[in-house]
Amino acid sequence: MLWSSCVALSFGLSVNAAISVSAQQTSSPVIGILSQPIGLRKTDQNTEQKEEYVIAASYVKWLESGGARSIPIPYDAGPGMVKDLFGQINGLLLPGGGSAVPPAVHQLLNLALDESFPVWGTCLGFEYLVQVLSSNSSLPVLTDGFDAENNSWPLLNVQRRQLYQDDRIYQIVRQKNVTSNSHHMGVEPSAFRNNENLNKLFEVTSVNVDGHGRPFVSTIEPRNPHIMPIYGVQYHPEKNAFEYGTYAGTNIPYKAIDHSEEAVEFSAYVARFFVRLVKAHNDNNHDGSSVHRHHSYTKHRQYPLVQTYPVKQMLAFEQYYVIPSAKQLDKTIKQSASKLLRG
């Protein structure tokens, strides 16, 4: 993963600068966040409407609180762009939202499985994981109709594998309303158990029941985290620390999110857990061998960090970044390359 002095010098950097860049790559990994469509917006001419892609700022802040940077992966990215972006990142975050599984996610997860690459799925991202990795079972794994919109609950039947191993966190998640839920889709424990592939790959380490008493899986952890470091939660750990939206002109919270000391502590703990996982898998394998050497954030102009994009606000998110579509991004990359060639 570390840049060699020769590569650094080819970019006009000194050896000392190369060492500094290498250290940053190791200490603050880059995690790709999939953008999400949020509907249509009018163009400047008001003659047509285009879909807008976004990343909630809470995900970016959450990863930063764990010690990581992030770059966007366009929801509509094609195979070539996905492969190129995959080489720039050290981990992958599939966030919440309300969209169907795009082809990019299938490709990203296949690449991740091939390389024992760290992946985190939150809410919709969790649902993506179970849909893609259930191997197209004839029995539906993900179903609709859950009453789990705008609720914060403790976790039930918590298993102490990796994520909830810490004594204090184990007590917090079992006793406090620290998990923010915002979904109507979900996976019943029986549906998960009946899927051979999911059972082979994951262990259910917590469940919940919705407002009508219907159970759903709320945490999955890999049975072999060294080979497949992929985790998924149905709740939103980023919201406790970084979403404080209120209805316009009021102090009334838009979402029932717990911002207690324990909730914020839990949010930070989960961020650190994932970022530590990313660092570990990008530094050394479980047998001590070096892994993921070809994953290095070098294309800064083509793929800027998320926080360089325009910021907006809406009720659902305190802040969100407007991310270009794959087509727009590809056009920008080509224009930049053309300018460089012209000198």
UniProtKB/TrEMBL annotation:
Q: Which residues form the active site?
A: 123 (nucleophile), 236 (proton donor), 236
**Entry annotated with the keyword Magnesium:** no
List, alphabetically, the Pfam families matched.
Answer: GATase (PF00117)
Provide the leader sequence positions.
Answer: 1-18
Gene Ontology CC: vacuole
Q: Name one GO biological process term.
A: tetrahydrofolylpolyglutamate metabolic process
Q: What is its EC number?
A: 3.4.19.9
Residues in domain Glutamine amidotransferase?
A: 86-245
Known catalytic reactions = (6S)-5,6,7,8-tetrahydrofolyl-(gamma-L-Glu)(n) + (n-1) H2O = (6S)-5,6,7,8-tetrahydrofolate + (n-1) L-glutamate
The name of this protein is: folate gamma-glutamyl hydrolase
What species was this sequence derived from? Seminavis robusta
